[in-house]
Write a structure and sequence with these properties.
Helices cover 61% and strands 13% of the residues. It is of the alpha+beta class and 277 residues long. The protein has a domain of 150 residues: Reverse transcriptase/Diguanylate cyclase domain (Alpha-Beta Plaits, 2-Layer Sandwich). Its EC number is 2.7.7.65.
Length: 277
């Protein structure tokens, strides 16, 4: 005889017995054979077990997929981090390269404006500076002066001591000239044994004083080259830029003033006042 649920209720609750174990015991009990509910209970049990198996498979697949997704996510993150490191490295290399190119361009620009022998600015830089100074005068600024300096009797130095000593004399002369100018004045090698000073915002008297300072510096510091002490002098021609003229005209006037200083005996300063007779 098959017991009713009511008859089994006390037993089902005894010691918290597991539901599955109780169902399995009821189905295995031969005393319930032929009971009208046994077949239904058996079908329900099999269906339940089938569903549980499916749930377990789904759970397994879900767990496996989540594990794979986590691994994939970690892999993507790792690849992303590696790629970001590579990008960072490339960026640093690019920054260093750009900085190097800026430094190189600056060095090339500086070299293009420097005389290779003396290290002073060269004729190219003089022309650029004169254009800038002329533009400032045109805009209402104060005018500037140009001084052209020539080493007296330099040919005799080359003839007596050789061109190597002559080059060293020019180097020392350049150092002396550069150390005896002040403010924004520019000192450059014009060519051969000639040098140029550009004196911004200067009167003709101020330019004469600057030229005299250069001569005094040479007098107080004789040049010693290759064991030879040389007391050299310079002749200097000075001109002040006249507003409205081309700066090359001011250079020509300074050149003529230099020629006049040499005519008058060298080792002197001659200034062109810009007045034509």
């Amino acid at each position: 005889m098959f017991l009713s649920v009511r008859d089994h209720e006390p037993v089902m609750k005894t010691h918290g017995e597991d539901l599955e174990a109780r169902i399995q015991r009821l189905l295995a009990d031969p005393g319930h054979e032929g009971h009208p509910l046994r077949a239904a209970l058996s079908d329900l049990w099999e269906q339940s077990q089938s569903q549980m198996a499916r749930i377990e498979r789904i759970t397994y697949i879900s767990d496996a997929y989540q594990a794979m997704a986590r691994e994939r996510e970690m892999s993507i993150n790792e690849r992303f981090e590696r790629q970001m490191k590579r990008i960072g490295k490339v960026a640093r290399i690019s920054d260093r390269y750009q900085e190097m190119m800026r430094d190189l361009n600056e060095a090339l620009r500086e070299a293009s404006h420097r005389d290779p022998l003396t290290g002073l600015y060269n004729r190219r830089m003089v022309m650029e500076r004169l254009r800038d100074e002329t533009a400032m005068v045109a805009a209402g600024g104060e005018s500037y002066c140009i001084a052209v300096i020539d080493v007296d009797h330099f040919k005799s130095v080359n003839d007596q001591y050789g061109h190597e000593v002559g080059d060293r004399v020019l180097v020392e002369m350049a150092h002396t000239l550069a150390s005896n100018i002040e403010g924004d004045a520019l000192c450059a090698r014009w060519g051969g044994e000639e040098f140029v000073l550009i004196l911004p915002q200067s009167s003709l008297d101020g330019a004469r004083q600057a030229a005299a300072q250069v001569q005094e510096g040479l007098r107080l510091a004789p040049l010693t080259v290759a064991g030879h002490t040389l007391s050299l002098t310079v002749s200097i021609g000075v001109a002040r830029y006249q507003p409205g003229e081309n700066f090359s005209a001011a250079i020509d006037r300074a050149d003529r003033a230099l020629y006049r200083a040499k005519q008058l005996g060298r080792n002197r300063i001659y200034a062109d006042d810009g007045v034509t007779a």
